[in-house]
Each structure stands twice: as C-alpha cells, then as structure tokens.
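Hi R.,

Here's the chain you asked about this morning:
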Amino acid sequence: MKKEITEKVKEWIKKADNDLKTCKKELNSEDPIIETIAFHAQQAVEKYLKAFLTYHNTPFGKTHNIALLIEKCKKLNKEFEYLYEIEADKLYPIGITIRYPYPYDLTLEEVAEFVKIAEKVRDFVLKKLNIDENKN
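And here is the predicted structure, written out as tokens:
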C-alpha cells in the first residue's frame, strides 16, 4: 500500500478517535450536552467508515449518510452488514440534524448507546484495516 494512502487512513482514524474522545468526555461531564454527544458519535462512525474506504481507494464524496457509507464498504467486504445489526446507521441523520432546532428529544441513555455503537464500529473497522494506527 502506498504510504500516502496509509497516512490518510491514519488521519481519518485520528479524527474519528478525537470525536469518540469528545463523546466520552462529554458523557462523563457534570452537565452533559446531549446534542454534542450525538453529533460526535455520528461523526466518529462516519470517519471510521471513510478510513476504510480510503484504505481501499474507494471514493465516497461529501456525505454524512452512514447507510450510504456502509453500503460502499459492503461492496468491498460483506461483513460490514454487521454495522446494520448494531444499528450504526441510526446515528444519521439524528447526529447531524440535532445541531439545529429540530424536535429531537434524545435522552442521555440514548446518546450513551450512540457512543457504544461508535466504539463497536471503531473496533470492527480497525480489525479490517491492515495498518498499525499507532505507528507514526
């Protein structure tokens, strides 16, 4: 694999990991902001999927649509069906639209589940990548 692609994949993973860290930090704060947790959980899942697609040199365009990204990943590896089983696709569009004045009424328990989903997506995608994301 070309070094440039590997580096780009690592960048996607780092950005996704930062979103996941933001979720966890906010979730464990004294006064958690539900919208922030939902948004960053969605962003983490999106970026992990984009890391996988980048690894396979597969274009994905400008999208936040997790189901669309899962479908692109499934074309490369049918095991990505698992992400529907854990309901990763439910983070879109909620994670995006919740930033605006829409009538979403999420609970802390629901967004905590979003964080668990993002963690599962991370574990799943990293197992599919043949790189060491901790190496520089």
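One quick note: Residues 10 and 133 are 6 Å apart (CA to CA).

Cheers,
M.
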